Fold this sequence. Notes:
With 83 residues, the chain is mainly α. It has helices at residues 5-17, 38-52, 58-62, 67-82.
Amino acid sequence: MLENLEMEFKEMLSKLTGLEPTEIGDEDDLFKDLGIDSLKVIEIATQIERNYKVVVKDSQLARLRTVKDAVTFLRDLLEKKNA
Length: 83
């Protein structure tokens, strides 16, 4: 699960932004570069909760800036869950 996490997250972003996963870079700003807004943050949180069976607060995601930040946050969350 964790080995494909980055691509899975980019695919999730792809569905919300209309960009191809390969067009989404690790250092892309979620808000400025990808156009994620507060409604999309809620959608991302909901999708993460469904896909990975974890609880994510919208406010936690809203503090993240880059795709890399979000993947790291999600990886840490899943590692704690599986510990």
